[in-house]
């Protein structure tokens, strides 16, 4: 938990934010901070105390969601060094897996889609940049070092190192996320 919080904080510092600004004025950091603590409690093995603390965390998550417009349930799996750069309208499904060093822009939805055996949620690799208002939906895999362009709908798996754009998203080049992350 501490490692996750430190690595998230460091990502904000790399973008030039001052400590005061990160802690008191950056809603993305608030949401990640709350998530890291709640996720650690969710993983704990102390049955009675765990349930009590999770109820408190649910209220805390809802407060952060109202204030910041960012919904990150405690059961999501997010790697270290996540960066949410802007306020609001970010919805992440409770079963989503997100790798390390990912950037999530405003307006992003990562959710469930599909039918039958293909119904599910995305698994997102490391160092993925997700542009503003992008939607990633379904039981798909997003490879490492990908860029998902703004206003895109990604509902098919993509290999590592690709840039996709559009509705539905198509591969537009093989430039990786280097330079975005």
From TrEMBL:
Superkingdom field: Bacteria
Residues making up the signal peptide according to the UniProt record: none
Biological process per Gene Ontology, one example term: cysteine biosynthetic process from serine
Transmembrane feature ranges: 15-33, 53-74
A single cellular component GO annotation: cytoplasm
Uppermost EC category: transferase
Keywords: Acyltransferase, Membrane, Transferase, Transmembrane, Transmembrane helix
Catalytic reaction list: L-serine + acetyl-CoA = O-acetyl-L-serine + CoA
Family in the record: Belongs to the transferase hexapeptide repeat family.
Protein name, UniProt field: Serine acetyltransferase
Protein source organism: Zunongwangia atlantica 22II14-10F7
Biological classification of the source: Bacteria, Pseudomonadati, Bacteroidota, Flavobacteriia, Flavobacteriales
